[in-house]
């Protein structure tokens, strides 16, 4: 096989291996991001529960103040009742007293409801804090695993980059430029095998003359349909592909 073609095949495989790291990196980071989002979601829920408690406590304080105002009003009405001289004044005071008592009952019921709400929210916060702690423990373990995984990936990448650099330094710059030109649009299918007389880049059947040139492997041969660089797979490569 042509030396330049052998180098292009090897370079293509290295580039493909390097590019294959990115999905692994993204997957690892996505796992961590998912756990971090769970953590943030629970933190947001806790903050909302705390806001609910603050709001309920504020409403409770307003009702406490309103109750005191109603009590003061009832006390004042008692004094006014003792001093009332006409039936009309007495009835007006009685009506005010009834309304004040109704408002007092409502305010007390509202305070009871708010107190129950506060207790419920406090219990929910404790549950969420326990949930958050569990998620944070999981996140810490996962982060450690992912950091190890990313470090291993980086090590493998550097080894491949070194291998690529060594190969590129020996290659013809003209051949390398030709390969890079095709790779800009073909990505990791710049150099592809031929199977059953078809280009494995565009999957079009190549003519007998081109196929014969690929079999010989004496020159760099391009697919007449898509322009990719073609080569004939070894039996081992073909068996692995199948």
* The first-level CATH class name of the largest domain: Mainly Alpha
The main sheet orders its strands as 2-1-4-3
| Terminal Cα span | 23 Å
- Overall pLDDT, averaged? 91
Helix content: over 70%
Q: Shape from CA axes? A: rod-shaped
Biggest pleated-sheet summary: 4 strands, mixed
What Rg is obtained from the alpha carbons, in whole angstroms?
Answer: 40 Å
Structural topology:
Elements: H1 3-19, H2 21-83, H3 87-170, H4 173-186, E1 191-195, E2 198-199, H5 208-216, E3 221-222, E4 229-232, H6 235-241
Helix pairs in contact: 1-3, 2-3
Description:
This protein has a four-stranded mixed sheet. It has helices at 3-19, 21-83, 87-170, 173-186, 208-216, 235-241, and strands at 191-195, 198-199, 221-222, 229-232. α1 (3-19) packs antiparallel against α3 (87-170) and α2 packs antiparallel against α3 (87-170). A hairpin with a 6-residue loop joins β3 and β4. The longest helix has 84 residues, at 87-170. It folds into two domains: 3-170, Helix Hairpins; 173-241, no CATH class. The mean pLDDT is 91. By secondary structure, the chain is mainly alpha-helical. It has six helices and four strands, in the order ααααββαββα. The radius of gyration is 40 Å and the shape is rod-shaped. The two termini are 23 Å apart. Keywords: Coiled coil. Residues 12-184 form the CT398-like coiled coil hairpin domain. Residues 18-170 form a coiled coil. InterPro entries: CT398_CC_hairpin, Oxidative_Scav/Glycosyltrans, Zf-RING_7. Residues 198-230 form the C4-type zinc ribbon domain.
